[in-house]
Specification:
The complex is a heterodimer of chains A (about 100) and B (about 475). Chain A has about 100 residues and is mainly α. Chain A is about 40% helix and about 10% strand. With about 475 residues, chain B is of the alpha+beta class.
Chain lengths: ~100, ~475
């Protein structure tokens, strides 16, 4: 196994995903198989090949520095679960 | 044991674009919460980032100014971490291919130059702000700042003391303001700094384990936080412990640093190229166009001021600390004849003192460069003395009129008529027989007393040079 149960739990925690014991075992298996495939590709000699950052040939489109957005806070906050004094409220975060 | 400190700094400079890096929302500071957070900034489903060309130009401008390699092809990557003020769950940043590569800055420590290497500078987006006051037991999130363009400037671990770290930070601060890519406002958080600090026995080659200090938002705190952290690390090692690699928060009230363990866990950022953003490619033409917008840089200006105006190193440093102040000074000089030194004294002395007192920027000075120059010309042509000029300046500051109007209105014109001065001197000598005797008996110190009395009697208007000269003659023949 390239990825064990603990690795999966750590990644799940970083992404704030709740997994059952069974799910994390299953994911350890499937993620390991994906990494296994990548291991196979590692066998190919890629010396001198420039790493690809994006599959398309396109270059990034740049826009003018102009403010075009208007204040739509009311609309956005109408669908937020909790707001107060213009703020979005989220479960308490403690440092 | 003797210890050596090793410091590297990461500076986050908010680029002063009008709109955000990947959305067209405004970046203006101080708006009502969330009124400048659009659907892209909020990470609503289906939105896509579109890069702001001005942010790219500003980053290139910085790269050119420090003589760094500007990468014509750079790549945006996702830095993944979970925090409520980062709605996407990742920050768009640059990882493997930043826009600015290796460069350097030269700092000055006790008259000696030292080169600090710049590892890289990359573009990224700022996060929002979390407000931890109690909102029904919840945390409040303001996303106005989310998506503000940042240039993260990473130095090499080249600094060896808190003093060097501050000198470097000030240098970067001065440069970004000269380049007009960042307003440098540390209180508002548009210029922030993290410090990587470690210690090692003097002479050892390998670096010690470092701690990253966060939340140091003034030059003074940078110095203090680093000092405190050095002490802590040496204490840990000398009492047999080991420094652990971690992020620590500086508490300016308690003047201590404390561990931020929560952050450590998340330190696996799982970077990967952002599929929403193909590589950014800049052509030579764009880069050369930016090069043409480079202003005279602080070091070059300082050297020129010393040469052109005959200023001391110190005066030149003060007067070139910001571009606006340097421009003001040069404007004054263009109106006064051959008296750049007097102009320097007034700009860095009286004028700066008044500006400081009212927390005003040079651009907000009620006394224009032209007006200050007229005042200096009145000192130069002996219409008023330097001392009286201070009173005139105060009246000019209060917008009481032009230099000549104020001099006329207040009757401040200097007395240069030798007859009038002689009369005053005679009166003073006649009224102070005792002191005249003392002077004759070799107590030359009383000379100052006479000068003071004459100036007082003339209400400060007598020409001090003439008073000195005539007093000497009078006393010699008395």
């Amino acid at each position: 196994m390239l990825i064990n149960n603990d690795d999966v739990k750590k990644i799940a925690h970083l992404a704030r995903l709740a997994l059952t014991e069974q799910e994390s075992k299953d994911f350890a298996g499937s993620l390991s198989r994906i990494l296994g495939l990548i291991e196979q590709m590692n066998a190919v000699d890629t010396a001198g090949v420039e790493p690809m950052a994006h599959p398309s040939e396109a270059a990034l489109r740049l826009r003018e520095d102009v403010v075009k957005e208007e204040n739509q806070r009311d609309q956005f906050q109408a669908v937020a679960p909790a707001t107060e004094a213009g703020l979005y409220l989220v479960p308490r975060v403690l440092e | 044991m003797e210890w050596e400190t090793v410091i590297g700094l990461e500076v986050h400079a908010q680029l002063q674009t009008k709109s955000k890096i990947f959305s067209s929302a405004s970046t203006a500071y101080g708006a009502e919460p969330n009124t400048q957070a659009c659907n892209v900034d909020l990470a609503l489903p289906g939105v896509l980032p579109v890069m702001n060309q001005e942010a790219a130009r500003m980053a290139v401008k910085f790269g050119l100014a420090i003589g760094a390699k500007v990468n014509k092809r750079s790549v945006f990557a996702r830095k993944n971490y979970f925090y409520p003020d980062l709605p996407k769950g990742y920050q768009i940043s640059q990882f493997e291919l930043p826009i600015v590569g290796l460069g350097k800055m030269v700092i000055n420590i006790d008259g000696k130059e030292k080169v600090v290497g710049i590892t890289r500078a990359h573009l990224e987006e700022d996060a929002g702000k979390s407000l931890h006051e109690d909102f029904q037991g919840m945390t409040g999130v303001d996303l106005n700042r989310a998506g503000t363009p940042l240039l993260e400037i990473v130095s090499e671990p080249d600094m060896r003391s808190s003093k060097e770290a501050v000198a470097y930070l000030k240098k970067v601060h001065e440069l970004v303001r000269y380049l007009e890519i960042c307003d440098g406002n540390m209180q508002e958080g548009s210029f922030r700094c993290d410090a990587n600090v470690s210690v090692r026995p003097k002479g050892q080659k390998e670096f010690g384990t470092r701690a990253e200090l966060k939340n140091i938002n003034s030059f003074r705190f940078v110095e203090k936080a680093i000092e405190i952290e050095i002490e802590r690390q040496i204490d840990v090692i000398e009492s047999g412990g080991k420094v652990v690699q971690e992020t620590r928060l500086y508490d300016s009230v308690k003047d201590t640093t404390r561990s931020m363990r929560s952050k450590e866990e998340a330190n696996d950022y799982r970077y990967f190229p952002d599929p929403d953003l193909p590589p950014m490619v800049l052509d030579d033409e764009t880069i050369e166009a930016v090069r043409k917008t480079l202003p005279e840089l602080p070091d070059a200006k300082r050297t020129r001021f010393i040469k052109e105006y005959g200023l001391t190193n110190y005066d030149a440093g003060v007067l070139t600390s910001t571009r606006a102040l340097a421009d003001y000074y040069e404007s004054v000089c263009s109106h006064v004849k051959d008296n750049a030194k007097l102009a320097a004294n007034w700009v860095s002395g009286e004028l700066s003192a008044f500006l400081n007192k009212e927390s005003k920027d040079i651009t907000e000075s009620p006394v224009s460069a032209g007006q200050l120059a007229s005042l200096l010309n009145r000192i130069e042509d002996q219409t008023i003395s330097g001392k009286i000029a201070k009173d005139v300046f105060e009246a000019m500051w209060a917008s009481e009129g032009s230099v000549d109007e104020i001099i006329d209105k207040k009757g401040l014109k200097q007395i240069t008529d030798s007859g009038a001065i002689e009369k005053i001197i005679d009166d003073v000598l006649a009224a102070n027989n005792v002191q005249v005797e003392q002077y004759k008996n070799g107590q030359e110190k009383v000379f100052g007393f006479f000068v003071g009395q004459v100036m007082k009697a003339s209400k400060g208007k007598a020409n001090p040079g003439q008073v000195n000269e005539m007093l000497k003659k009078k006393l010699a023949s008395a």
